[in-house]
Design a protein that fits this description.
Shape: globular
Order of helices and strands: HHHEHEHEHEHEEEEEHEEHHEEHHEH
Number of strands: 14
Strand content: 5-15%
Strand order of the largest sheet: 1-9-8-5-4-2-3
CATH architecture of the largest domain: 3-Layer(aba) Sandwich
Helix content: 25-40%
CATH class of the largest domain: Alpha Beta
Structural class: alpha/beta
Distance between the termini: 18 Å
């Protein structure tokens, strides 16, 4: 078997080469317009993303972390109010809670789909709970219907961290569907370059069906101002620049194609890794499509050795995430301790993500799978 081309964890260069002329034309139009902040390119992208998501209001912003913070700022929460989220995720989700003087309350995740466990969320609700913030980890949604039921029962707001699952379709039990990020009250996303819909720099967005809430979010993102130099609330400066918007507008046209390629790569991985007792391929939730921001294995034996074997074979891999948030030094002051969230802790010791992007070639996937099979002597 011939040696495959060098394998990247994320191959943005080859993806760019396929759309280079479209991107360069879009950037040139921005440069010709001289509208670098909140220009027509931003308005165009907002409209197109709103149509894709079926959102009444899309508010582009500077990055995904800002999106989460602005969403919480729009809810008029008070210091000490509690926000329930998962400890098995990137720190930004909990970070914004802490930065606003709110209390992050963690609920464990489910061992199959890696997303919030509604039963544990129910146990964590108190009189100070105001928000449930599920993270749609790795590319498929959390089990939203039971979370929405809890929110309705207790008068809570649901803010979706959709940084990893844009384009995923959620199906309600009655057959209705909604895009990830459009299931709760507010959706937030990141357009970090490695995301499924990625800019060529930092970028993010907030979206909602609630027109009034959307206007408030938009005001907060623009220095608390609706009219220039007149400020209704204390806000932030978080705007999507026109060049990034123009790039995202081009890539949005290709998003469903990109998702299909990721799903095809995931299916090839599934076939190539079948029958390895120590390896569990990603489970697909029955309520959500999976857009495979990451292709993440659970490995019950030799995870660190496998990572070394992959590296020796020229194959990158990543562990998302090696330390759950409740065990991070930054959260030591909240009194969490080891053993409180056993599923998150177990996953941190078991998960490993393989290369996943739109440009993976069949021979590259074959090489990766063969290396893993060889490591486990299967």
């Amino acid at each position: 078997m011939s040696t495959p081309a060098p394998i990247q964890m994320v191959d943005l260069k080859t993806q760019y080469q396929a759309i280079r002329s479209e991107v360069e034309d879009a950037i040139r139009q921005v440069l010709d317009s001289n509208q670098y902040i909140n220009g027509s390119a931003v308005q165009s992208f907002s409209r197109h993303l709103g149509a894709y998501l079926q959102a009444n209001k899309v508010i582009p912003c500077g990055n995904g972390t800002d999106a989460l913070q602005i969403a919480l700022m729009a809810l008029d929460l008070q210091p000490g109010d509690e926000v329930i989220t998962a400890p098995f995720t990137f720190i930004a989700t909990a970070e914004v809670i802490s930065l606003l003087g709110l209390k992050p309350v963690f609920a464990d995740v489910d061992p199959h789909y890696f997303n919030l466990d509604p039963a544990d969320v129910a146990r964590k609700i108190t009189g100070r709970t105001k928000v449930i913030m599920p993270v749609h980890l790795y590319g498929q949604t959390a089990p939203m219907e039971p979370l929405l039921d809890l929110a309705k029962q207790h008068g809570l707001t649901v803010v979706e961290d959709n940084a990893q699952a844009i384009g995923a379709d959620f199906t309600y039990q009655d057959g209705r569907t909604a895009k990830a990020g459009m299931i709760g009250d507010i959706g937030c996303t990141s357009f970090y370059p490695s995301k499924n819909l990625g800019a060529y720099g930092d970028a993010g967005a907030v979206f909602t069906q609630d027109e009034i809430l959307g206007e408030k979010i938009n005001t907060i993102a623009n220095h608390g101002s609706k009219v220039r130099y007149y400020h209704d609330v204390v806000g932030v400066n978080s705007r999507l620049d026109s060049i990034q918007a123009a790039i995202l507008d081009i890539k949005l046209k290709h998003l469903d194609e990109y998702i299909a390629r990721r799903q095809a790569a995931a299916a090839a991985y599934d076939r190539g890794l079948a029958g390895i007792p120590q390896v569990t391929v990603p489970a697909r939730a029955p309520w959500s499509t999976h857009v495979f921001h990451q292709y993440t294995l659970k490995v019950t034996e030799g995870r660190d050795g496998l990572k070394e074997a992959l590296q020796a074979a020229g194959i990158p891999s990543m562990i998302y995430y090696p330390v759950p948030l409740h065990l991070q030094p930054a959260y030591a002051g909240y009194g969490y301790r080891k053993g409180q969230f056993p599923i998150s802790e177990q996953l941190a010791d078991q998960v490993i993500s393989l290369p996943m992007h739109t440009e993976l070639a069949p021979d590259q996937i074959d090489h990766i799978c063969a290396t893993i099979r060889q490591y486990y002597h299967v």
